[in-house]
Amino acid sequence: MVSPGARRVWTCGRSLAALLLPFAFASLAQAPAAEAVTPVAGPPLTIHYLERRVERPVPLNNEDPIPDDEGAKGVELGLRDSNATGRFLGLSFGLDASVIEPGDDIRQAFRDLADRRFVVLNAPAADVLALADLPEARGSVLLNIAAPDTRLRDADCRRNLLHVLPSRAMLTDALVQLLAFKRWSRILLVTGPAPGDALYAEALKRSARKFGARIVVESRYDPQGGDVRDTALREFALPTRGPEHDVVAVADEAGAFGASLNYNTAAPRPVVGTQGLSPAAWGRPVEAWAAVQLQGRFRKIAGRPMRPVDWAGWMAVHAIGEAAVKARSTDPATVRAALAAPGFEVGGFKGRPLSFRAWDGQLRQPVFLLWPGAVTATAPIEGYLHHRTELDTLGLDEPESACRAFSGTSG
Hints:
Blueprint: E1 7-11, H1 21-27, H2 33-36, E2 45-52, H3 72-86, E3 93-100, H4 106-111, E4 118-122, H5 125-132, E5 141-144, E6 161-163, H6 168-181, E7 186-191, H7 195-211, E8 214-220, H8 228-235, E9 247-251, E10 271-273, E11 278-280, H9 291-302, H10 308-327, H11 332-340, E12 367-371, E13 374-379
Parallel strand pairs: 2-3, 2-4, 4-5, 5-6, 7-8, 7-9, 9-10
Antiparallel strand pairs: 1-3, 11-12, 12-13
């Protein structure tokens, strides 16, 4: 059941439009002038946001915890931006949000939604898959903003499921592209004990094979039973010792120890992976391609920097809004058709148009390689080519994917 007080509705009035005119005009720049000023008012299109709250580990080294509103604030900004853009065509959007606690039945929460046609999901992979398989979800468009599991884009893909957050395969492909470009091809891998750590390590090994790098040795590290903050100088000497290597890669998605690897490896090598130099959909240092505007708007409503799941939440609602603008309609069936059209593209402040892959529903997008204070590079890295688009060098390409739920084979 949905927890008491967890259900809330957000709407955005036209009073915000004046603040967001530059964004609105940029979104409509490709529309014919005559159509852009012709109102096509209709009923508001309701977008649902459904989140499973998960228990987070205590942050290491007194770092800021993952905010409770991660994802939700991005969705809220997406609604504001979509309303600011849509008002020029008489289009409007509403947002119905539900957050359920650990242990509650997310399937019942989905069934309780008044209109299930567009649902943004901020939930683990098991929940995403369970919802996609519900009979009540057959006519839905589900947009995954939080589960990076590659299997959801592979054998466990579903036709009603689109993925806005990059997969683990996309993230590790971006990282290994940069390592190969720099000829740092010998990788010593340290993997944590959590299930997500193993999945990240497996993705990194696949990327190494794909781009000609090599895992020279893999060691396991379990931080349980001690305080790594006090013992890092000694603790990491053994797990980071091995054959000659260029970087130490860490798979520690929970952040239980990875940050303390910096400057504590047996040999003086860069730390990359989930900590150190890390691939991500978004981050605080991203400013190019007018991203500083998005960062500023987000900080105004959230009071903090935009995180990857926030960006994915914003992007999910923004994509629905852009599909409505292109269709000049808020009719759900018409918007769904526009979103699924082979030529559909949408901006995401990443320097190029983004689009959903026809074979697995994944949003094509660049991936940033981030050091805490700066963007080191943006993948795909120069020189990695593809017959369709270089963006398809990141993650599962069509011949690699076991997804058979989608009928499209190109685009």
